[in-house]
Amino acid sequence: MRVVVTGGAGFIGRHVVAQLVGRGHDVHVLDTRSIELGARLTLGDVRDPEVLRRVVHAADVVCHLAAKVGLGVDVQDTPDYADINVRGTATVLAAMADQHVRRLVLASSMVVYGEGLGRCVEHGAVAPGVRAEADLRAGRFDPGCPQCGSPLASILIDEDGQLDPRNAYAASKLAQEHFASSWARAVDGSVAALRFHNVYGPGMPKDTPYAGVAAIFRSALVRGEPPRVFEDGLQRRDFIHVRDVAAATVAAIEQHESGMVALNVGSGTARTIGAMADALAQAAGGPAPRVTGEYRLGDVRHITADSSRVRALFGWRPQVDFAAGVGELMLTSE
Ligand code: UD1
After folding, report:
1. What are phi and psi of 195, to 5 degrees?
2. Cα 301 to chain center, whole Å?
3. Which of 89, 194, 266, 304 could, after both became Cys, cross-link 176 (CB 3.0–4.6 A)?
4. Which phi-psi region, left, alpha or beta, contains residue 15 (left: φ > 0; alpha: ψ -120 to 50)?
5. How far, in Å, CA of 306 to CA of 303, rounded?
6. What's the pTM?
7. Ligand 1 mutation pick, 77, 198, 234, max ligand atoms within 8 A of CB
8. For 187, phi and psi rounded to 5 degrees?
9. 296 CB less than 6 Å from ligand 1?
10. Residue 52: how many CB atoms within 10 A of its CB?
11. Euclidean distance between CA atoms 128 and 218, whole angstroms
C-alpha cells in the first residue's frame, strides 16, 4: 500500500515507519525533521496545504501522527496546540479530500477521558471531579465520589465512556477526532482514532518538559540520581511499549477501511508510577526511587482504559513484556 505518515520522524512515527517498510509498504514521510528512515521523506509542515496535497497525492491511506505532544505545560502553549494539532489536522483532511484519499489513521490519546471513571459503592460508576489543590497539598491524592466523597474503586473506561479533556493538549486531541469524523461523513471516508496510553520505549523524547515519566526517570538514573516519584506513587497508568503501539497502528492502516472508530491502545495492565520507577531503578542497578509527595496541578490521578476493542477488531496483541521493555529502555543510549 502507499502510506503517508506525517510525523514519521517522531518517537512513535519512526517505529511505525520501520514496521510498514518491513511489511513491504511504500512509505512516504512528511516531517519537519530530517533523519535516516529507510523511506521517502518530504521535509515540511502539516499546516502547509501545498506540501500536503503533493505528499498525499495517490496515497491509499494517511497516518497522521505529527502533533505537538505533552501535557500542556503552560497556558501560553495553547495557541500552538490549536495551530499545530487542530489546524494541522484540518489541513491534512482538506488535502486528503482534494486528492480523493479516503482512509485516515489518527493518533489520539487517553487524555480525552480526563479522570475516566471510578465505582462508588453507593452511586455506581461516576466520573471523579477535578482534584482541588487543597486536597493535593494535604496528600489526599485519590479523588472521591463527586456525590458523596466515598473512595472509588477502579473501572476501566471503554471507548464509549464520557469525554472530558482537561488541558489544552487533551482538547486539541479531541478536536482532531471531531474534525476527522466530520470529514469522514462528508467524503465517505474512514477514520481509526487510536487513543494511545502512556507509550515508552527506545527513542522516547527526553530532557524536555514534554518527556513522559519513564524518560524522566531514566534520565535521572543515568545521572546517578533517584527517580522522583510524585504524589504517593500509587497513581495508575497503562504503560505500553512503542513497538506494540506501532503494531496496532500498522494493523489499523492495513485493516480499517470504513467508518469512524475510536480505539483505546494499551497493554491491558495498569501499573503504578511507583512500580515503573522501581522497575527502571532495578534495571539500572539503583539508586532506589524517592516518593516526594510533589504534585502537578494538571495531572489526573489514574488513567486506565479497556483496550479490548482493538484486539477484537484487528487481532492485535501487545507482545513486549514489561520487565524486558523497561530493561531495554534503560540500556538504550538514545
Ligand atoms: C501521558 C503523555 C500524554 C499522553 C498520555 C496518554 C507525556 C508528557 N504525556 O500523560 O501525552 O496523551 O500519557 O495516557 O508523555 N511523574 C512523576 N515524576 C516525574 C514526572 C511525572 O512521578 O518526574 C508522574 C506524574 O505526576 C503522573 C505520571 O507520572 O502521575 C505520568 O506523567 P506523564 O508521564 O507526564 O504522563 P501523563 O500525564 O500520564
Report:
1. -90, 95
2. 17
3. 89
4. alpha
5. 10
6. 0.96
7. 198
8. -110, 5
9. yes
10. 27
11. 31
